[in-house]
Amino acid sequence: MDLQIKNAYAVLGVGYGDEGKGLAVDYIASQNPFSIAYRHSGGHQVGHTVMIGDDLHEFRHFGSATFRGIATFWDSNCTVSPLPFEMEYKKLKNLFNVIPRLYCDDFCPVTTLYDVAYNRAKEKQYKTGSVGVGFAATLKRHDLVPLFVMDLKYKFVLNEKLRNIKTFYFTKVESEGIVDLYIEELGNLALMGYTVDCFLESCQFFIDHILNSNDIQKNEYFDTVIFEGNQGILLDKYHGFFPNVTYGYTTNRKVKYDQLNTFYASRCYATRHGHGILKNENLDLPVLINTECEQNHLNDWQDDFRIAMLDYNLVEYAIKCDQAYGKNISSNLLFTCLDQYENPKMTIDDQVVDFDMNKFMGLVDNVYYNDSPESKTVKLWK
């Protein structure tokens, strides 16, 4: 996509995900109605929650500005998963009367039921904190046995590549000693209706309901692009803490633009889903209120949703990691969920202090805050 635009924003999380990136994207879109949401990393494993009035949705295949009628561009770094796409598309259409528009690059990697089964079998064995939807498995498999979006348009090509992927995984699980777990997960998917026939049908639905990325500037008028990041910088493959990292980039490293107004998102407390280090979890845990709209539910793959006091030094570290790529013309920090934590605390150099947004002013140009589930209550701090 040729980016001849007036304004470019980026939204990144400074933690382990769940910071409020969806809310931040929705806020920026509300101020810039002629926008396009640009997904440049991650893929279908994200869950960006947006609430407008009574409408509440966790966006995965579509940008977080979709409720505002804004289209999404999906570049070749992002994975797609046809069945979840179909389910989300139909939910947006039937429940919210929204027809989402996704412009998808032909070279996006496609997740199959075999990727999902392998991902879940591997997670049962090693407990790394995966979401369980086949994201990392897809990218690793794709280097050897690729399946692109463009392949879905050709029945023979799709069938042959799917057969090769099936063979690839049976060889792989044998060498890794997880054959029984893998077969069990294929069976579990089949019990839920996710069979090969179902996958092929969803591939056709996907092709029928995406738009050609080459047509985006012909079909859409926009003067602003919002680069919507995925997960959090503390999960980045370079900047997070191995082995509990994502198989991708969560900074602006892959953004194809060099003059960004970046919004770094963080709750006023720290969160983590599943396994891995969470600093301050040994201290008094925040007592949360007003969490009725929380979308982080227990699942078989990530385990519990964990919380702790925010650590100033890790927020600083995450921001500095991204700023090292030198793409910002301005930096902004948005604190969300202030309505959920009365008299919040944080740590600085391992000392517990009152949560104070003034402390963060030296890290960025502007600090914003929000005290509701909706972006309409976002305010500039001083």
Commentary on this structure:
The chain has a domain at 7-70 and 222-267 and 315-335 and 359-380: Adenylosuccinate Synthetase, Chain A, domain 1 (3-Layer(aba) Sandwich), CATH 3.40.440. It has nine helices and 17 strands. The protein has helices at residues 21-31, 82-96, 113-126, 135-142, 155-176, 179-191, 196-209, 216-219, 312-323, and strands at residues 7-13, 35-39, 48-52, 55-59, 72-74, 102-104, 211-212, 224-228, 260-267, 270-273, 305-308, 310-311, 328-336, 345-348, 351-354, 366-369, 379-380. Strand 14 (345-348) and strand 15 form a beta hairpin.
At a glance:
It is built from nine helices and 17 strands. The chain has a domain at 7-70 and 222-267 and 315-335 and 359-380: Adenylosuccinate Synthetase, Chain A, domain 1 (3-Layer(aba) Sandwich), CATH 3.40.440. A ten-stranded mixed β-sheet has the order 7-6-5-2-8-1-9-13-16-17, with helices on both faces.
Order of helices and strands: EHEEEEHEHHHHHEHEEEEEHEEEEE
What is the mean pLDDT?
A: 93
Structure classification? alpha/beta
Largest sheet: 10 strands, mixed
CATH architecture assignment name of the domain at 7-70 and 222-267 and 315-335 and 359-380: 3-Layer(aba) Sandwich
Query: What gap, in angstroms, lies between the N and C termini?
Result: 37 Å
Number of helices: 9
Give the percentage of residues in beta strands. Answer: 15-25%
Give the CATH class of the domain at 7-70 and 222-267 and 315-335 and 359-380. Alpha Beta
Q: What best-fitting shape do the alpha-carbon axes yield?
A: globular
- What percent of the residues sit in helical stretches (DSSP H or I)? 25-40%
Low-pLDDT runs of 5+ residues are none
Computed Rg: 20 Å
